[in-house]
Amino acid sequence: MGATVLGAAALLGISGCGTAAQAGAAAVVNDHVISDQAVQKAAAELSQGTQDGQSFSPSEVVTGLVIGQFALPEAAKLGKGVSADMAKSYLPKLTDPSPEALDYVRTVVAIRNLDANAQRSLVQQMKDASISVNPRYGTFDPGAFDSNGSPLVPESRNWLKPTANPTTAPAPAPEGGATPAPTTAP
Q1: Residue 104 pLDDT more than 60?
Q2: Where are the domains of the chain?
Q3: DSSP code of 137?
Q4: CA dihedral defined by 117, 120, 124, 130, rounded to 10 degrees?
Q5: Cα separation, 169 vs 10, whole angstroms
Q6: Which residues pair with 152 in a beta bridge?
Q7: pTM of this structure
Q8: Torsion, CA 149, CA 155, CA 156, CA 162, rounded to 10
Q9: Each residue's pLDDT tens digit, 111-146
Q10: 33-42: per-residue pLDDT in tens?
């Protein structure tokens, strides 16, 4: 489990749990809403803010913020909490990072500081929680921790309803109402 949660936190590649129950929500953890707008902003900030130029996808940020709902209180309870100031030190290129960007960093650091027992407790807490993720980020499956290290399973079906292919308007009929005969290509 240590490697499982650590792997999930380090990669923070989470997907979604069914559908987020509220419009504009990237995820809902129990009653806490993680907004899509905050996720997009944090992903952009994290990608700009690190010294090594690492890129962060919105799915990774959703994963981190969902896990953070459990990891941050657990770390604090064990005296291993991570301050916002410490998190800022990991984002030297940002002067004023968003709370979500900081929470993502705090989560990664907190998980690294937790022992295997605390990480197992974290997984159980997530399995017992009500977690819903917008399908654009995948499907949340706490059982996935047991097999691949991330609770987010990429969405395999097209969750967006396909739109009809746009058609061009038919050409107007020539004067006199006659329809021109088709031509063959040379």
Answers
A1: yes
A2: 2-153
A3: G
A4: 110
A5: 52
A6: 140
A7: 0.70
A8: -170
A9: 889 888 888 888 889 889 999 999 888 877 766 654
A10: 999 999 999 9
Query: If residue 49 lies in a helix (H) or strand (E), which one and from where to where?
Result: helix 36-49
Quote the tokens at residue 29. Answer: 């953890």
- The rounded radius of gyration (Å) of the Cα atoms in the chain is 23
Contact 18, 136 (CB under 8 A): no
Residues 160-178 as b/e (b if ≥16 CB within 10 A, e otherwise) read eeeeeeeeeeeeeeeeeee
**How many angstroms separate the CA atoms of 143 and 121, rounded?**
14
Q: Which of 132, 104, 108, 110 is nearest to 42 (CA)?
A: 104
Least confident of 110-114, 166-170, 171-175, 179-183: 166-170
C-alpha distances in angstroms, 123 versus 88, 144, 186?
27, 10, 67
CB 46 within 8 A of CB 104: yes
Residues with Cβ within 8 Å of residue 21, at least 6 apart in sequence: 28, 132
